[in-house]
Design a protein that fits this description.
This protein is α/β, with parallel strands linked by helices. It is built from 15 helices and ten strands. It is globular and about 55 Å long. Bound molecules: nicotinamide-adenine-dinucleotide and SN-glycerol-3-phosphate (G3P).
Length: 341
């Protein structure tokens, strides 16, 4: 059955662009947020003044601060709050959920207890509901300007995949399907770490060869980690892998890249976060992934070096230089394994 009604949980920039696409596609859409004044502005002026002040929104989009009203009877609920709040919000809406309602996470982060991805948190809280993940190279501000973009809906449930593809596809947004939610979700979470590292590199004025090396070796490192976590390495060739890594490591619209850039310019981590004024998920993800890599003995020199810069005040240029003298390595480990070189 095509999706006829949707809820978007979260009033930030990505939640708003997703809600607006759904409303543009004629789907009855309710967006839940905590802030009354933003909900009023969306309903009356059709604008989200805090997160997307320059984007006129579809007048049919209804904003509400009543979570029950938002999720009740919605065919699909998109969850678009920062990772630290996903469990809390899902526990709040659980009492109003029916088993046939689909849940789709757009959140790119990790819950540290048990190292859970957001779709796993949703399944943990709402075990009776089909769950999917939407992830890809999706800078919200570009999508808000209707610049052409694509994303991936990943789920083991083929009905959910097809219905979400139909609900979100439009002239400027194209949605591809994947049956590897774990890989797609890890791609979205892990790339934030490397966007921070790319921000340092840009601020230090290092060259294009350096940038290409960092992005490509980041892909090698994140796919090595993801495969150890049970993901399909081929997923990293797609939009949710190399696609999202490339955009987030290249654009000053990325919050994670901006945090890295500010640190490369000499700001402390606290100063960089304060000047950003929004959540850069990669800062926390870096801590959790480093711990997991140590615990599981996974070789992740870029994660270790980025951690030293962010949390131990190491000099980014010296760290980058030190990485050049790492152990002799294979270019593509899925072709030549690390112990065969
Ligand atoms: N912005 C992007 O370009 C983009 C693109 C793709 C995916 N994402 C991912 O989507 C998620 C949301 O991103 P965003 O850009 O919309 O974030 P944002 O920081 O712009 O907004 C998050 C929203 O969640 C709300 N929120 C925070 N804690 C909450 C809580 N406990 N209860 C209820 N609401 C709460 C905030 O008030 C805000 O309205 C992130 O994980 C991000 O990685 C973002
Ligand atoms: O602004 P960032 O760094 O959270 O990145 C936004 C999106 O994840 C890009 O796909």
């Amino acid at each position: 059955m095509p999706i006829q009604s949707a809820a978007v949980v979260g009033g930030g920039s990505f939640g708003t662009v997703i809600a607006n696409i759904l409303a543009d596609n004629g789907i009855q859409t309710r967006q839940w947020m905590r802030d009354d004044s933003i909900a009023d502005a969306i309903n009356q002026q059709h604008i989200n003044p805090r997160y997307l002040p320059d984007t006129p929104l579809n007048p049919a989009l209804q904003a509400t601060t009543d979570l029950q009203a938002a999720v009740t009877n919605a065919d699909v609920v998109f969850v678009s709050v920062p990772s630290a709040s996903v469990r809390e919000v899902a526990e709040k809406f659980l009492p109003w959920l029916q088993a046939e309602q689909c849940l789709v996470s757009t959140t790119k982060g990790i819950e540290p207890e048990n190292f859970m991805l957001m779709s796993q948190v949703l399944s943990d809280v709402c075990p009776d509901n089909p769950v999917g993940v939407l992830s890809g190279p999706n800078l919200a501000k570009e999508i808000a300007r209707r610049e052409l973009a694509a994303s991936v809906i990943a789920s083991e449930n083929s009905d959910l995949r097809r219905e979400v593809q139909e609900a979100l596809s439009c002239d400027y947004f194209r949605v591809y399907a994947s049956n590897d939610p774990h890989g797609v979700e890890l791609g979205g979470a892990l790339k934030n770490i490397y966007a921070i590292a790319s921000g340092f590199v840009a601020a230090l004025g290092l060259g294009e060869n350096t940038r290409s090396m960092i992005i490509t070796r980041s892909l090698a490192e994140m796919s090595r980690f993801a495969v150890q976590m049970g993901a399909n390495p081929l997923t990293f060739l797609g939009l949710a892998g190399v696609g999202d890594l490339f955009v987030t490591c290249s654009s000053s619209l990325s919050r994670n890249y901006r945090v890295g850039f500010a640190i490369g310019e000499g700001k402390t981590l606290d100063e960089a976060i304060e000047s950003l004024g929004e959540v850069a998920e990669g800062v926390k993800t870096l801590r959790y992934v480093r711990e997991k890599a140590i615990e599981s003995d996974i070789y992740m020199p870029l994660v270790m070096g980025t951690y030293e810069v962010l949390f131990n005040g190491a000099n980014p240029k010296q760290v980058a230089q030190g990485l050049m003298r790492g152990e002799m390595a294979s270019d593509v480990e899925f072709a030549l394994s690390r112990n065969e070189i």
